[in-house]
From TrEMBL:
Pfam families: DUF927. Residues 99-380 form the DUF927 domain. This is DUF927 domain-containing protein. InterPro entries: DUF927.
Amino acid sequence: MSWEPDDNLDLFGLDESDKHDPAQNDVSTGAMVSNRDNHAASSVDTTRTPPFTPCPQDEATTLGQEVEPDSMDTPPAKLREPFRPAFASYLTHTRYGVPGLYFHGQRQPRGDGDPEPYDVWICGPLECSAATHDERNDNHGLLLRFKSPYGGWREWAMPLHLLKGSGEEMRGELLNMGLRINPDAYKLLNKYLAQCLPDDRVIAATRVGWHQLEGGRVFVMPRRTLGSVELSRRITFQSEYGTHDDYAHAGTLASWREHIGSLCSDNPLLILSVSTALAGPLLDMTHRKSAGIHLVGDSSNGKTTALEVAASIWGGPEFIRTWRATGNGLEGVAAALSDTCLILDEIGEADGREIGATIYALGNGTGKARASRNGTARRPHRWRIAILSSGERTLAAHMSEAGQRPKAGQAVRLLDIPAKRKYGAFDCLHHLSDGRAFADHLKSEVTHHHGHLGPAFIEHLVKERRDLAAMVSKFTDLPKFATDHPLQGRAAKALVLIGLAGELATEYGLTGWREGEALDAAEIALKGWRTFQGGVQTEHEQILVSVRAFIERHGDSRFSDVDGDPRQTHTVHNRAGYWRDQPEGRVYLLTNEALKEALRGFDSRRGLDALDSAGWIAEREGGKRSVRVQINGKRSRLYAVRPDEGGEYES
């Protein structure tokens, strides 16, 4: 691309005489990146001009203010001629034109004349403050600081891979954040950024949440890092999307406590929802990956209002997602909200065939392994997340409707909690007349007061020195949470963790609730879950129930006496096996195919382990859990199963 002197007239709005008139020179500060040979980059200022120093925030507005040359009362100081070729960033009007990043070049005219200087405006004021990379020395980037014509200074940790190709994605993000860019000089912008080699380096956090640094822990959010001042300067959030920030805020913490927190008091379901939203930051501190509840109730009873109140901990009503998404999509959302809370409304919109696998993935904190374009394995998404969901049906009912069999592991990863209280989802309406008015009032208030409690809670957690995992264990051992049932114990521990989050926030003076209200809400939720579930079955119990049901359903039609005369035995269609009467009771000899059918999706080895541990394997041969039986002159290997007579495991 060739640049002629007239090319700059439209950029600056100056004629040629104004452009070179020293009287029009403006005082500015320049950040120089010079090229000695147009190929190698150097951060050394070869013009002997004082280097650009990042200005304090309180001075940024003055330094970055755009001043028209004819409006200044005093003549500006004269700028020193820059070294050419070089890049320089100016914070005010200069003889070159409006504030911004410039390229000062020179071209060799035809013949033996002296090189002719030219100046190109590239974009608004822009500087590169630091180089970034993650803890593994991957995900390199640049911490950019820039200013739009109508706003203050902004920062963005830009991944370097956005410079690939023409850099269009990178420019799109900068434009979206307010930086003005010369469309004819985008290659110079790419070149400037590619040459930047700042001395300062900071860690690039590619996910929200806790990060362990040498010297302590910090909590990284898109636009702020919570922790000590010293540690916070050493890490920043880096994303391809500079403007994407789920953590919006409005009002103040005090206004949230007055207008929303106070109304949650005496409403166990609202307290439980807020406590769930606060539980995310505790997961890493208590060595867990997830904790989740699913509010189940009739339509328009206040469930969604409870979700909106919970969302106000971290952001506005837009913080709520919907179940109407693919499993891969929810993995990406969970990774973006790590160590906070994933709030999902209306489980009925989810695909019942996929939701079971999605619950496992969200609860395990690891996404699917995927291959890159060249066949190498990409690092899967990872997260720790609290989950708050709602719907008119339980998880089990939604899966069953789609022909899927719910599993115990899914039931304890997302606990079904009945959302039926005195007034819909509420117990106390405070000064409102009815449940509808109360819900509408809360919906209005959360739009004006949100996004403060979560960060304030983390600021206290950064200083927390108590063993929170031990506190969870201590509360779980209380009589109101204690249980001998292993899966009920897991459910109790998750609800205790949620209750502890609410209690800590109250102790820190953030909620305005009474001491003990959050744990009381967790206890009410556990009782409701137990009643709702009728007690959850382990996989071991589910296997025994399934095998017993299969035998009771088909024992007369698909089985016959193994010792009976075939001529006098009724014809058996779709045979599942045989039976043999013994003094201890009838033994059913199942074929391999029949056993798989009876297990309803459980692995055969897992099923045999459950049958064996329950004492249902009646006969065995050597080290095998099956026997060879002579039938009609042929020896067949069958599984001898005798269900117990006590009926301990009922469906």
